[in-house]
Amino acid sequence: MFLKNRYESEELRVLNALNSRMDLAEKEKQYYFNLKKGFEGEVVFDGHLKRIVIQSLILSDLLFEQNHSHFQIDSLMISQSLIYLFEVKNFEGEYYFDGETFKKINGTEVKNPLLQLERNASLLRQLFKSIGYKIPIEPYLVFVNPDFTLYQAPLNKRIILPTNINRFILQMNHQRSILNNQHSRLSERLLSSHLTKSPFTKIPPYEYAELRKGVFCHSCGTVMEEYRGREITCESCSVKENTKKALLRSVKEFNILYPLEKLSTNLIYEWCGGVFPKKTIRQVMKENYIISGYGQWSIYE
Ligand SMILES: [Zn+2]
Q1: How many whole angstroms separate alpha carbon 62 and alpha carbon 2?
Q2: CA 20 to 30 Å from 64, out of 106, 177, 199, 267?
């Protein structure tokens, strides 16, 4: 049973909105794509975990602080006598282990995910100890991308390759697991220790005046300019989107970037690059937000 679901982090949503509206530096872009890819991989793994039928409590995307160190957990599963800790990687392409280092086939060294897993497991053990729980932790490193290949994989039963995931889930489903109050209490304890503000965020500074205005295609990121009443079309990839949806999506992007700013028709008109008539904006906003004020001074909340 999923107790805590996974959502795009605030950082990812901000970067999503910024990516089409400003030119991110190469490093920022790489960081954003990795973040996005990582999230997509975690969602794929959630899909596998949904097939678990034994009694269990699953908590996704947790952030803790232990001994002044922050650590993030992709998925944690509480079963009767074990805690499963999953570090999920959505790597694509060919990789190999060269002793203690983890490398791409072209020789580029990548942060060793097994070390990251060990660190997380160790910090989680300390956290459990500090809250008085003795249940053993089994850490696993899961590679979810079907286009991932690992050469010289150490015979480490902690590594689950894309071709092992099904078998792993089947094996889990053969285990006996009966949960009681203590397990629920542990999950509540973990949820209350979870931090919502990540100290790791890397959001570049941005200025309203410098951001590109317009409605940006949710599929390819190009500005959408072909507006025809009920729908708006992306000329670049031909994706069509319902006007209401596209407008509300753009307003949400504004909200993510400027959560404290008040929304008015004029502001939304400008933010959307003037593509939607003010009358349409007023109508859609009236249906979805609460209006306060009057006439051109109305704001939407
Ligand atoms: Zn497009």
Answers
A1: 13
A2: 177
